[in-house]
Amino acid sequence: MTTLDTSAPATGKEAARAKFAGYFVGLSRWKIGEVLFWLALVGAYFVPDMNIILLGHILIWGLFAMSLDLLLGYRGIPSLGHAGFFGIGAYAAGFLGKYGWTEPISGLLFAMAIAGAVGLVTGRFVQRVHGVALLMVTLSLNLILYDAVHRATDVTGGDDGLQGIVIDPVLGLFRFDIFGKTAYWYALIVTFLLFLVARALVKSPFGLSLLGARENTRRMIMLGAPIERDVSFVFAISAALAGAAGALLTQTTQFVAPSALSFDRSADVLVILIIGGTARLYGAFIGAIIFLFMRDWLAALSPVYWYFWIGLLLVIVVSFFRRGVLPTLETLLQRLRAR
Amino acid sequence: MNAARDIVLATRNLRMAFGGLAVFDNLNFELGRGERHAIIGPNGAGKTTFVSLVTGLLTPISGDVEFNGAAITRLSPQQRVKAGIARTFQINTLFRGLNPLESMVLALCERDGRSGQAVTSVSREKPQIDEALAMLERFGLQEGALTLTDMLPYGQQRLLEVALALALKPQVLLLDEPAAGLSTQQGHELFSQLVELTAGTTILFIEHDMNLVFRYAEKVSVLAAGSMVVQDTPDNVRNHPRVREVYLGV
Amino acid sequence: MTSIATVLFNGVAYGMLLFIMSVGLSVTLGMMNFVNLAQASFSMFGGYIVVLVVQRLGLPFLVSLPIAFIIVGLFSIVIERLVFRHFYGTDDLTQVLLTIGLVFMSISTASYFFGGTYQRIDMPAWLSGQRDIFGLTLERYRIFIVVSGAILSLVLILGLERTKLGGMVRACVDNPRAANGCGLNTQMIFAVTFAIGGGLAGLGGALSANLLGIDPNFPLRYLVYLLIIVSVGGMGTIGGTLIAAVTLGVADVAGKYYFPSFGGFVIYAITIAVMLWRPRGLLGRTA
What we know:
Chain A is mainly alpha-helical. Chain A has 15 helices and no strands. Chain B has 2 domains: 1-84 and 170-250, 3-Layer(aba) Sandwich (Rossmann fold); 93-169, no CATH class.
């Protein structure tokens, strides 16, 4: 409920109007939970014995899953090949660093531009297919790219990865250290800024039209909506953000290998997003936290069998929390409040 | 035909088939500006196909669809919407996971070319939000404006279906069985509301209930066996021998 | 030197294995619109049953094949009743995620019981070594695969065309709702079809055990190929699946032999082209 304005003895109709007019303001207003979430990521750095490197990976995976969320959660287009864009960003940043362009921020932007351009083209011709065919096309594109990178050993170093990547200190001040301290701050700031971009986008009229097309394409056509243009655009944005995540991984580790764009990664990012919950943006990060902490813990427990538990988690989530963890929690919280 | 009649929408020698099955052979139809015009015909006569041909969801084998005297046969559905043709569907075609307010603001942003704006919040689109509220009030949908469309009573969903199309301020509004799924009583309520709400807009509607047709249409076209059998006033259609034979089964 | 004919033959043998593993997936996808990636795990299960029966129990290889078919068939019906049937009608992505979760679990389970290495299977003498036919030197086991694959295809195609169950299955593929309306017990038909498809997957895995090798990563290695075959061939069509499987088998073997640097490029590129051109597959109905 909105707070009542006591100064204006509004008629029922006017009060209703004020309430409705405030609806979209309420949607885009920063919630306390959001602020706490980002503060927690800042604070986590200062927790003693915190695994900063793992935390940095969580940010990168979260950003990557968020990029998929724009496509899958908000527009309803699934992709089994999203690691392709991640890998393009990762290798773009890697090649820059290897061949002399060592400044990280411009390298990141360049990687995003390349990945975004590929995403634009992909979006243009992928949008003609749906369902299983779409899954197969995105999957095959991913596999082709992986195969190419994997086999072009002269250029990419093949399975050994791209060696000799040099990344300058951020802003010429903060050198990437082996403890991952600079890496964490760099990843956190980049992720937060890109999150702001994604957040603005999903709360904008364009974001609303993505939701509309997800809910009912036919009606969108009959509203005169340029849905082809919209799909290409959201593909490009999503790919650029995935590319940024890839570039972050390369820059913070100064290394990139074909696993950056393997099908496993495409599957993992889907798992992360589905576990966390789609069309939330934060679901991507929650999923990344759950997935990576679980993987870290289970892999330490039993290095061979931990995938069993990931598989079980996936089965449980799609069976019982089909909307993902975050939306389920939200519903629970609302019920508790209503009491 | 009356020489003074201003034709806004017409089809010329329209031919359409699905696979080998011919739906229309040589369909000619005219819609005068400002009319409230009904298309009736037995099941399977191709009424919905006709609407889809006009709106561009289907493309004819030959023949033309004309809008304000110019052929629009090659235009995309979206271009036709922009030109001023809007439609509703027999089966609710709504944004089930959005509420009516969001749906309406979305429709208005699309109409006004604001949907490409990806930077600032929807809350900045003041004119569209105000108009959306006014529109929902006009249709009596303000109560459930923040309820998920899926959760609305069916009758309100039918109204929203029309409201979204009308929000585009079309020159011609095509209503594909607006009263589908409603009781006779509700159907009459809906139609009397629609007559009021759509005043000033050219309406072409498909309807099965003859009582509704003869009460609310100013002109009636009968579609049967792949062509328009008659296009005339309700009274003349009612008494037309051919219509009584093919359709009313009298 | 290996002649073109031998490469072709090896490709056909490989394609037959892929066909047997994927045909059940094709029918269930066509019929229930259910994407079952765990089909590849069913195949792995069949392979391990052969390992158990032949290596541990010492029974003949030929005996292990029907055992694999029956056990995996029964197992798949249990999974279908317990899990899958709750997911009919959900979107493709949910089904993909559910079944890939099961694949993950099957991989870990396999490595828990059998370890991560490839399993050795001792073939009977009459299936080992080579044999000259029409001037070609061919491996006996591959001949066996091609012949049994051909017989099985014939049985399946005739079974679907001629038997009562086949007719009911075809009706369900064409229009499940209408079939239900006509008084067919669709749930029952689904389950039986699923069992046969699962059994065949198990049989395919059993036959593959010697040629492709059985290890815990078997499902991941062949999952993509099975998906490609089914979607390119056309869901629910046995003929389309057979053609796609044999083509892919030949293309893969020939590609690896003549153009090793190309990798899977040709296969994936063809998949994309077919999917863009005919989203329902080559022999799938355009709807």
